[in-house]
Amino acid sequence: MNERPAHRSDTRPRGRPTTILVTAATGNTGRPIVTAPAARGAEVRALTRRPDTARFPDGVEVCDSAAPDFRDVDAVVLNMAALPQAPAPFLDAAKAAGVRRVVTVSALVAADGENGAEPESGSNAAIHLGLERAVEAAVPQWTHLRPGACASNAFQGAAQLAAGDVVRGPYARANTSPIHEADIADVAVRALLDDDLLGQALSMTGPEGLNMAEQVEILGRALERPLRFEGIGPEAAKQAMLSVHAWMKEAAVDSLLSYLAHSVGHCAPVTQEVPRVLGRPAPTFAQWAEDHADAFRR
Ligand SMILES: NC(=O)c1ccc[n+]([C@@H]2O[C@H](COP(=O)([O-])OP(=O)(O)OC[C@H]3O[C@@H](n4cnc5c(N)ncnc54)[C@H](OP(=O)(O)O)[C@@H]3O)[C@@H](O)[C@H]2O)c1
Fold first, then answer.
1. Ligand 1 binding pocket includes 81 (Cβ within 6 Å)
2. For ligand 1, is residue 124 a contact (CB within 6 Å)?
3. N or C: which terminus of the chain carries fewer CB neighbours within 10 A?
4. Which pairing describes strands 2-3 and 200-204: parallel, antiparallel, or unpaired?
5. Cβ(110)–Cβ(201) under 8 Å?
6. Mutation probe of ligand 1 site: the residue of 21, 22, 23, 29 with most atoms within 8 A of C-beta
7. Which pairing describes strands 175-176 and 210-211: parallel, antiparallel, or unpaired?
8. What does residue 71 show for φ and ψ, rounded to 5 degrees?
9. Alpha carbon of 141 to those of 98, 128, 160, 255, 278: distances in Å?
10. 140 exposed, middle or buried (CB, 10 Å; 0-12, 13-18, 19+)?
11. 247 CA distance to ligand 1 centroid (A)?
12. pLDDT, tens digit, for every residue of 10-20?
């Protein structure tokens, strides 16, 4: 955990429920964040480019991300995926509307930029660190969530698995410690509604390191299919990533691939932030696969 000072005053009028604005609300990370705060009496406004067709649970207010409505918003979940251009205009508008708290969906690699050397321009680390700094400059209350590899990345293989038992990707032996999106959501809710995580940057991972081939085998056990991973070259992987992630520029994809290349033969980092904050163990990738098996069967 990295802790820096942040102001801790709450000017929200008494009696009104806390209102949370969630960017990238239809995404893998956004969906569970949208549903979680209601259990604590907070109201959620979900931003999407598709307000007419995106479906959310009853009680969630839907808002077009082209014209974010900051009225009465107490806290924002800010995800880079929904801001492929610079986040400055969004943060300026939030600040002008009086938003005081932002929970940033950042990334574990942002920590690379805190050890003295500035990360390489355009790299994944530089992009996420830049986002964190912009948030800190804009609002007095912030928490940065820094997930490592998301277990939901496995959905990228869903189309391939509809056609056969092979998932193709780069670096079969690259080790990551996949984190369940429910953990990101639960920590986000704590950061949105409580004050004890303010001013902290939380490096969050799943409970165990697994390489890509092992992750596909585990998914296969949940699906009761003999799945296997097949390696592709980094250039083919780069083109695939650029086509899927609109917000990622070439330099960011290059840095991600070089991170994976470096992870071959190295243990994946496993942190204790999820159990520390939530008071329960982080679920395994096998649990994630069980939770989402139906999504791969459709
Ligand atoms: N994947 C990982 O392993 C990993 C690791 C560390 C950190 N992260 C962080 O997590 C973020 C990804 O979050 P996620 O997994 O929830 O993403 P996601 O599932 O790809 O969802 C992103 C959402 O953003 C919206 N969006 C996509 N492209 C957009 C565009 N060009 N303009 C405006 N909105 C757009 C879409 O919603 P609508 O279509 O409804 O508007 C989409 O549902 C990354 O940006 C990174 O910062 C990811």
1. yes
2. no
3. C
4. antiparallel
5. yes
6. 29
7. antiparallel
8. -55, 130
9. 12, 18, 42, 30, 20
10. middle
11. 8
12. 555 556 779 99
**What does the block give as tokens for 162?**
């509809």
Give residue 11 CA to ligand 1 midpoint distance, Å: 31
Q: Tell the residue number behind the tokens 């820094």, with chain if given.
A: 146
Q: pLDDT tens for residues 224-242?
A: 999 999 999 999 999 988 8
Q: What is the pLDDT of residue 83?
A: 85
Query: How far is residue 223 from each of residues 28, 179, 251, measured CA to CA in Å?
Result: 20, 19, 35
How many angstroms separate the most distant Cα atoms in the chain?
A: 57
CATH top-level class of 2-290 = alpha beta
Q: Residue 164 is encoded by which pair of tokens?
A: 């056969």
Q: Which two tokens stand for residue 132?
A: 């964190």
Strands (E), 12-90: 19-22, 43-48, 61-64, 75-79
